[in-house]
Amino acid sequence: MTDTALVAVALMCLANLCLTLGVIRRMNAFSGAGSSVAGTPAGLAGLLPPAGLRPDAGRHRIPQLAGAALVGFFTPACEPCKELLPQFAQWAYRLPIPAIAVVVGEPVPAAEVAESLAGHARVIVEPPDGPVAGAFGVRNFPAVCLLDDTGAIAFAGFDFVGFPVAEHR
Asked: Using CA atoms, how far apart are residues 155 and 124, in angstroms rounded to an integer?
């Protein structure tokens, strides 16, 4: 009987080890370890707009999207968004390029977030299926993008980690 119990415990430990390694592997895929071409963290390719994308908001033309710009995407119910707002405002102030904040959500709560960004960036409030977030392919919040001189995405991330500061000081 003790041999059977010992084998059962060993099998459970082996199964636990396999599951743990699977979880670690999955976490590494989404952690952004390493980087891919042109500034989008590895493992986040499907979650962030791809580098090189030229966003086109269709009938809602945004002149600032024609060249270099800092673009941030926020939603009112998101705690990480609230934490990133002060950093976004600081970067908007420091960079010599236009800053655009896109607040996605219902009008009343979105207006509160938009008010906190007024004076730091051009603020666009749009519904969840809005044209600007759609043009960028943003479905996860917060997100920040740096557009190059041609209006293409040079960097995309969920925060400013890995943000290419030296190019735009």
From this structure: 20
**Residue written as token pair 């960097």:** 155
**What three-state secondary structure class fits 104?**
strand
Calculate the dihedral angle through the C-alpha atoms of 46, 48, 52, 56, rounding to the nearest 10 degrees: 110
For the chain, state the CA radius of gyration.
21
What are the structure tokens assigned to 124, written together? 């666009």
Distance (Å, whole) CA 34 – CA 50: 16
Q: For residue 112, give the nearest of 147, 78, 66, 62 by alpha carbon.
A: 78
Cβ neighbourhood burial of 137 (10 Å; 0-12, 13-18, 19+): middle
Cα 35 from Cα 129, distance rounded (Å): 29
| pLDDT tens track for 9-32 | 777 766 676 566 555 555 444 443
Query: Side chain identity at 135, as an amino acid letter?
Result: A
Arithmetic mean of pLDDT over the chain: 78
Distance from C-alpha of 8 to C-alpha of 164, rounded to nearest angstrom: 52
The residue ranges of the chain whose pLDDT is under 50 are 27-43, 166-169
Can you give the length of the chain in residues?
Answer: 169
pTM, rounded to two decimals: 0.69
- Residue that is written with structure tokens 């980690």 in the block: 161
